[in-house]
Amino acid sequence: MTPERFNRLRATLDKRQPDLTVLTDYVHKGRNLSAIVRTADAVGIGDVHCVIGDKDYRSFRGTALGSHRYVKVHRYRQLQTPVDDLKTKGFQIVAAHLSEQAVDYHDVDFTKPTALLMGAEKDGISDQASGLADIHITVPMVGMVESFNVSVAAGIILSEARHQRQLAGFYQQQRIEQAEYERLFFEWAHPKIRDFCRSHQFDYPPLREDGEIIDAADWYASKREILAKRQADKLAGEAM
Fold first, then answer.
1. Which phi-psi region, left, alpha or beta, contains residue 90 (left: φ > 0; alpha: ψ -120 to 50)?
2. Second label for 83, Cα 20 to 30 Å away, from 7, 50, 65, 134?
3. What distance separates the 2 farthest-apart alpha carbons in the chain?
4. C-beta separation of 113 from 90 below 8 A
5. What separation in angstroms does the CA of 233 have from each of 127, 167, 176, 220?
6. Tens-digit pLDDT profile for residues 148-200
7. Cβ count within 10 A of residue 119
């Protein structure tokens, strides 16, 4: 690993915002979801929550490149589950929705734990989502078109959230727990070893200060021995 990559991974993790997220309510176009995920990564969001059908989810996964490796997408079949979970954790649900109660997005305090709720491309958020939201917000417009594209609107609102958090010093301190920080660093820095460990149910190996595996050759050798023994035991069992 180059020093540049090591420092880039650390700098990104240092700015992750565990109490800021996006929740989509049947945003079904893969390119829009992918754009939202990229924007989420850009403002330090590590988790995005999507209520989406099977077909649209498969299409979305087919476009999942780049920043998708650094943002975990949680998939749901109905909205109540993630909303309840986020509210239990103290998140305010801020929905982009033009209603009589809606306020300018600048007037929301995004330094609070916040889940930005975005609705479907054509119809916006559902009636259920409207009722579950704590705040409705709008992005003022002065042109002839009626609304922004959903991914564009998310980008505008998340930029305001980033601005408020920047002023509050949220990006000048580590905000995710150390164990989570170290896990994510390993998975980002060593994706092939991550997949190997997951496949064979191994713990991740410890890392040196420069981010490389401690005694990598010995670690690989020990795991090959374990795999060989597992295979031998399996063959012995089948022979009985």
1. left
2. 65
3. 78
4. yes
5. 57, 59, 41, 20
6. 789 999 999 999 999 999 999 999 999 999 999 999 999 999 999 999 999 99
7. 21
Return the SS3 of 11.
helix
* Structure token pair of residue 76: 């749901």
Nearest one of 40, 24, 37, 39 to 64, comparing CA atoms: 37
Q: State the Rg of the chain over Cα.
A: 21
Q: Does domain 3-172 have CATH number 3.40.1280.10?
A: yes
Q: Which class for 236: exposed (0-12), middle (13-18), buried (19 or more C-beta within 10 A)?
A: exposed
16-41 mean pLDDT:
92
Residue type, 56: D
Question: Contact at 8 Å (CB) between 160 and 106?
Answer: yes
Q: Is 85:23 a contact under the CB 8 Å cutoff?
A: no
Residue 209 has which token pair? 């200060």
Q: Which one-letter DSSP state was computed for residue 63?
A: T
pLDDT on residue 67: 63
Element holding 94 (H helix, E strand): strand 92-96
- Alpha carbons within 13 angstroms on the beta-carbon side of residue 87 total 13
User: Looking at the chain, which residues constitute the CATH 3.40.1280.10 domain(s)?
Assistant: 3-172
Model pLDDT for residues 59-73, shown as the tens digit of each residue: 566 555 556 789 999
Scan for tokens 């754009």, then name that residue.
35
